Amino acid sequence: MLERFRWTVVAAFALMLGPAALAADTKAKAPASEQPHRLVIQVDQNDPAVMNLALNNATNIIEYYRGKGEDVDIDLVTYGPGLYMLRADTSPVQARLKQLKDYAFPSTIQFSACNVTRVGMEKKEGHPVNMVSEAVIVPSGVVHLMELQEKGWSYLRP
Length: 158
What we know:
The chain has 5 helices and 5 strands. It is globular and about 50 Å long. About 25% of the residues are buried. By secondary structure, it is an alpha/beta fold. The longest helix is centred in the first third of the chain and has 27 residues, at about 1-30. Strands 4-3-2-1-5 form a 5-stranded parallel beta sheet, with helices on both faces. About 50% of the residues lie in helices and about 20% in strands.
């Protein structure tokens, strides 16, 4: 009789834990729509067509997920000749940067500027190189790209 009681307690305990374990497993394997949408876009060319294409891609992605009622995080990373995109004195897309930054909400877009490239440009040109106000300076554009991809961000090079 005692043995049967023990099995009844074990079975009841298993039934109690079963739904909790199932719920925890469901959270771990959330559907794609519940996973964060994160995209890193690389710009490494001083070409207005490439810069505009990158901004068009970002806009289209924001609009797509907005239409689904979902947010997206985008990081547009510039380095090498692509840094001209975020330079206050040379950016051919300066007005679009501010417009897109404002338009993105509640999604987010960050414009990352490579400090290694900036410092190199300053040495070569002999004066400080200022970035547009929307830019965030990262220590290294290439390392920033790599680290975001290691964290599961999708990658796009227009």
